[in-house]
Amino acid sequence: MIDWKFQERFKYFTNSEKNKIVDWNLTFKTKHPSKLTSDITNNTDSYKRSFAMKLFCEELPSITKRHLHRPDLYENAECILCDKAEEDNLHIFTCKRGGDKDPIKDLIIKFKIILREKILKNKPQTKELLIQNGLNTVTCLNYYGEADYESTKHSPYFTFFEIIKGYIPDILTNKITEILIEWEKENGITIRAKKKKNIKIKFANRSQHNQDGMFIMGEKSDEEKEYLKEKQKIKKKDRLFYR
Description:
Blueprint: H1 2-5, H2 8-14, H3 24-29, H4 43-56, H5 63-69, H6 91-94, H7 103-122, H8 128-136, H9 149-153, H10 160-165, H11 170-186, H12 191-195, E1 207-209, E2 215-217, H13 222-241
Antiparallel strand pairs: 1-2
């Protein structure tokens, strides 16, 4: 972590005020969608992890990177879709592709939709208006007109560009928490109620007890049940013998 902070590419961020308002635990969790120690390999999971880390570390194979490493093959770093700017990590998301529409506006809308879906998945009965109003109060999720990443890179204000790169601000996690707490209040869910342990109920159709008080699982044949009864009787005798 210390080595990561002192890399030249991150100094502008770690030395700024933005560094203080980042939820670092959640930020790094989003880079690893699954446990690194998992024995199961998954191509989709691997691609997501790789893309997230390369975007975060500014190592996506953009034209700028290719021009830097192979100037003999790539004469310049201009974007081949718009021919107006260098294709760096962020230009991939901000490129208008020859049009006039700023794609950041659509990205913010899509990001809000994803957050709304995540909240509703966790708390299905949450009011849409509560979610909408809550997310609209997060400054970095509001669209204030076209802006260039380089012009906001060294500013003290957290922008949507940082979210694209993978930084998660405290204000966003706090706001989502507030929305969920508000939902719990409206539904009469208290902290005390959440701390109560769930009582496990055994259904009669899934299990049964015989006359001797021995527990026999349901969905078994008569022969299996008789075998288990005899086995449990032997165990019971053994326990009584060794007392």
